[in-house]
């Protein structure tokens, strides 16, 4: 949904078109004569869910701002179809092969396609319901050198909201109420405030501009904020949201005579988009922090944590991974795990701690299973370095109240 800003090579576009012809050709073959006008219906679905994507790729993005109706009724069906297409096509091929062995290739193939399509539909429904669930996740972060005045200080972290015109305002209000109910000393928004376009900042500001905290509200850039055009996003945030943007810098937080530094990094997407100003620069970020001063870092991409840990940062709060929007916390595995070493939950390396939030929104499809959207509530404590998982509280869909929901415990690991 980004503005025009890329070009797909012709050979890649050709291969992608061939992929769609093969997949949809298999489905047409299997479903022909399954019901009246089966071929016409299948081709209509193919056109509706493929042509917009090919147009997006061929044109290097949308030449217009996609409003709510377009995102809900064009982009979302495209995403559902692209997720399902290869699995349904493969099920058709398997059905044809197995059916050929028993003399009924089309009948068996249709059965396979219907079973796979039904299973995917059920999974999408469960995932949609899961995407509406919101929890408060209570953690304690023990920091050996935490100054006495900051012992008990609380941070409300929200991440990966991906706000756009299609985002439910009722849901955003639930997130706001959850944050406000914590009465945290610090509010940290750890990137991906918006969904892909700088125009989305207005929607984000309408919901979150009123957040306040005694020690401040702090924002950092996420990769989607950068992809949307960082200069425009930064300008809109500065104009609409009364919060402190920390970009490759650290600011002192003072209580009584004690000081803790809050640092914010850039994002690796700045390197990919040649936006050097928003690319991460860890040395610059920590350059003004006195030696041995405690540092809490906000880094959207957890891949920056090893460099921060090496420089003695006590606690890093990240997001970015969404826990793959599909996770099995008991096993410490999520859909992002095969691709990322640091993918979910808490990690520790010597005295440096990392927590990766699953985020409060979603990207792409409204889908979450095993990775509920959360507002993270971190209480700082002085003590031997560790992250303690104190459990989660579900947030009512109709009120700001919450109730204990999940058992304490978690997926803290030593890296």
Describe, in plain words, how this protein is organized in 3D.
- Helices cover 38% and strands 20% of the residues.
- Strands 5-4-3-2-14-1-15-16 form an eight-stranded mixed sheet, with helices on one face. The protein has a seven-stranded mixed sheet with strand order 6-7-8-9-13-12-17. A two-stranded antiparallel sheet has the order 10-11.
- It is elongated and about 80 Å long.
- The chain contains eleven helices and 17 strands.
- Residues 399-415 have low confidence and may be disordered.
- The longest helix is centred in the first third of the chain and has 35 residues, at 68-102.
- It is α/β, with parallel strands linked by helices.
- It has two domains: 10-130, no CATH class; 133-414, Metallo-dependent phosphatases (Purple Acid Phosphatase, chain A, domain 2, 4-Layer Sandwich).
Q: Which structural class should the secondary elements be placed in?
A: alpha/beta
The CATH topology of the largest domain is Purple Acid Phosphatase, chain A, domain 2
Kindly estimate the percentage of residues that lie in beta strands according to DSSP: 15-25%
Q: Termini, distance in Å?
A: 36 Å
Please give the CATH class of the largest domain: Alpha Beta
Quaternary state of the chains: single chain
Task: Report the strand count.
Answer: 17
CATH superfamily of the largest domain: Metallo-dependent phosphatases
What's the mean pLDDT score?
A: 93
> Strand-and-helix sequence, N→C?
HHHHEEHEHEHHEEEHHEHEEEEEEEEE
Q: Largest beta sheet, briefly?
A: 8 strands, mixed
What CATH architecture of the largest domain would you give? 4-Layer Sandwich
Whole-number count of domains: 2
Shape: elongated
Q: Low-confidence parts lasting 5 or more residues at pLDDT below 50?
A: 399-415
| Tally of contiguous helical segments | 11
Helix content: 25-40%
Rg for CA atoms: 23 Å
């Amino acid at each position: 949904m980004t503005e025009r800003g890329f070009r797909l090579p012709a050979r890649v576009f050709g291969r992608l078109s061939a992929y769609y012809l093969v997949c949809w050709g298999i489905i047409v073959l299997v479903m022909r004569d399954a019901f009246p006008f089966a071929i016409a219906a299948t081709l209509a679905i193919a056109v509706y869910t493929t042509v917009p994507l090919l147009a997006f790729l061929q044109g290097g993005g949308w030449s217009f701002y996609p409003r709510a109706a377009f995102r809900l009724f064009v982009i979302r069906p495209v995403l559902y179809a692209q997720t399902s297409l290869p699995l349904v096509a493969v099920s058709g091929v398997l059905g044809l092969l197995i059916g050929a062995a028993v003399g009924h290739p089309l009948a068996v193939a249709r059965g396979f396609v219907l079973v796979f399509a039904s299973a995917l539909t059920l999974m999408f429904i469960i995932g949609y319901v899961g995407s509406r669930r919101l929890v408060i996740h209570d953690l304690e972060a023990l920091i050996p050198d935490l100054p006495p005045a900051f012992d008990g200080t609380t941070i409300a972290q929200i991440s990966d909201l991906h706000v756009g015109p299609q985002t439910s305002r009722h849901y955003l209000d639930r997130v706001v109420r959850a944050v406000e109910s914590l009465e945290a000393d610090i509010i940290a928004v750890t990137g991906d405030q918006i969904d892909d376009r700088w125009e989305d900042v207005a929607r984000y500001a309408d919901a979150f501009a009123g957040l306040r905290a005694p020690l401040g509200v702090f924002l950092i850039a996420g990769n989607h904020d950068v992809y949307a055009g960082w200069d425009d996003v930064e300008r809109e945030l500065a104009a609409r949201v009364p919060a402190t943007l920390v970009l490759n810098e650290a600011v002192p937080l003072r209580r009584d005579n004690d000081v803790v530094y809050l640092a914010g990094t850039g994002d690796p997407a700045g390197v990919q988009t040649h936006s050097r100003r928003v690319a991460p620069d860890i040395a610059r970020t920590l350059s003004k922090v006195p030696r041995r001063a405690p540092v809490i870092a906000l880094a959207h991409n957890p891949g920056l944590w090893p460099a921060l840990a090496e420089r003695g940062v006590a606690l890093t709060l990240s997001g970015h991974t969404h826990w793959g929007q599909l996770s099995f916390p008991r096993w410490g595995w999520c859909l992002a795990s095969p691709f990322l070493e640091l993918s979910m939950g808490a990690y520790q390396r010597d005295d440096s701690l990392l927590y990766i939030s699953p985020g409060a929104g979603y990207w792409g499809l409204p889908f979450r299973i095993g990775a509920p959207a959360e507002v993270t509530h971190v209480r700082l404590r002085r003590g031997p370095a560790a992250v303690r998982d104190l459990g989660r509280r579900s947030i009512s869909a109709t009120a700001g109240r919450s109730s204990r929901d999940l058992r304490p415990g978690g997926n803290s690991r030593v890296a």
